[in-house]
Amino acid sequence: MNFIEAIVLGISQGVTEWIPISSEGVTVLLGVNFFDGITATELIRLSLYLHLGTFLAALFYFRQEVKALLKQLFAYRKNDSKTKAVLNFYLIATLVSGGLGYVIIRAVEGLEGLLGTTSTVVIVVLGVLLLITGAVQLAKRGGGARSVEDATLTDSLLAGIAQGLAVLPGLSRSGLTVSTFLLRDFDDSQSLRMSFILSLPIVLVGNVLLNTTNFVFTAELFIALALAFLVGLATIHGLLRFAKKIRFGYFVIIFGVLVLASAFI
After folding, report:
1. Neighbours of 195 (CB within 10 A)
2. What is the mean pLDDT of residues 195-215?
3. CA 245/CA 238 separation, integer angstroms
4. C-beta neighbour count of 220 within 10 angstroms
5. Residues 58, 9, 191, 173, CA torsion sign
């Protein structure tokens, strides 16, 4: 990866992580077109590394909420029922998404050599999965009035499954999780905040487990990471500020159509 590619990937990650477009899908799409001799599994690992930048952006932006959650976690028995409901939601959703995501990554690694996936097949799969993401996002226009304190076990399981499935290139983590919350009648702004905070532990653990022995830290990777952080921070702020006015479903579907078309150009 050269400096130009690092800049492109960093900016791409910073924007696409927080909108209903798959950041992994975009990373794989860019990798297929610009990198030679790199496998789908390696691109997934690269995407996880770039997630560290947006992880740090979310951690910084929500530092007060994260600090409060950690304090409450270590004093779990002393918390009231609403606080315990919040903690239970994040804990259960994280465990479910982590377990499911791990199984999917291992399945991709096992099937990759057998399938011999070509660039065209990868792009077609990305386009189809992006269309699915857009359809899910359009399933319901707005959220309801529920907040994270109202989260149930069902909400936790559904959120965990949505986030776990998003390890597949083309499925947007934020798109699936936000759509899940909206379909469960959570408030629009709450849906965004819950999705952002839910990403923190899984991205951190995913990088520790999968990337610590697979990456050599270089200047190019540092640039990509820094840009993902800065652009991600700006994107989070913009999305939360205009949460009530943003609807990405149609854009994601158009993007998916363009991706499919690009496979035959």
Report:
1. 25
2. 73
3. 11
4. 17
5. negative
